[in-house]
Amino acid sequence: MLLPGLLSGTKGVLSDLMELWFTENQTNDLKLSCRITRTLHREKTEFQDLAVVDTVEYGRMLVLDGAIQTTVKDEFVYHEMIAHVPMLAHPAPEKVLVIGGGDGGTVREILKHPGVREVTLVEIDRRVIEVSRDLLPETSCGLGDPRVNIRIEDGIKYVKETRRAYDVIIVDSSDPIGPAVGLFSYDFYKAVFEALADDGMFVAQTESPFLNQNLIRQVYADISKAFPVAKLYLAPVPTYPGGLWSFTAGSKVYDPAEPRDVGEKRPEDLETRYYTREVHRAAFVLPPFVAELLRP
């Protein structure tokens, strides 16, 4: 929701400065507010309320149904960690599927891997892609690459109709409300397993270890049931609830925590601002309060 700030003044004279604020209700008891300079775009799409605002602290910000999805200032942490962990833990990913992620940041990172032949992006809301291309060019810059196939449809349905087609699947979803609810279920994870090649791997964003502990417990149990290898890892994303974010990987063969050596089809000098192979390994070293969430 876009909220005007309070007008201040004395004796009926308004201050020269009127502050405008965006406030996300992250829980019933927690709010995050950012001062904005202007609203660049807002509309009600077929699926959700979509807005792009220009903030003082984080630059341009994409908001869906009142929840922050990405910002120019901190998006690189999230997109690098959701993409490069599976892309470098798998020995030779050539075909990659991204569910959600209409802003294009995950696709941008995947395309840094020279062995990639095809990236399929399945986004249910066409307007997220169109608005991101227009107003978030730094994030969406890879969407025009000839290796990228964009499909506007339900990602859950697409996965259920796919068999052994992809080396890596990345679920870059919004929070488990609205159209994203079905992306956080055992049935979906089992369908992901079937859509992967025999040595495939997938990663999903799985919310805050501070504020979504019950969800993380359930998701980890479901992924562990669907995949022989399941591991959770962490990265800081300042604008997301709690500031610390979790990702859960499911793998048929390979250890998601171990990046592969540089090879013929591996990026020798991966241009990143957060991810390194050392950060990759360290992200799987969990503090006790997170490790406790994963115990049966």
Walkthrough of the structure:
The chain has 296 residues and is α/β, with parallel strands linked by helices. The chain folds into 2 domains: 2-70, Spermidine Synthase, Chain: A, domain 2 (Roll); 75-294, Rossmann fold, CATH 3.40.50.150. The protein is 26% helix and 33% strand. It is built from 9 helices and 15 strands. The protein has helices at residues 75-89, 105-110, 126-135, 137-140, 155-160, 186-195, 213-226, 277-283, 288-291; strands spanning 2-4, 9-10, 13-14, 20-27, 30-44, 49-55, 59-64, 67-71, 95-100, 118-123, 148-152, 166-172, 196-205, 229-236, 244-251. The strands form 3 sheets. It has a 7-stranded mixed beta sheet. A 6-stranded antiparallel beta sheet has the order 1-4-5-6-7-8. The longest helix has 15 residues, at 75-89. The radius of gyration is 19 Å and the shape is globular.
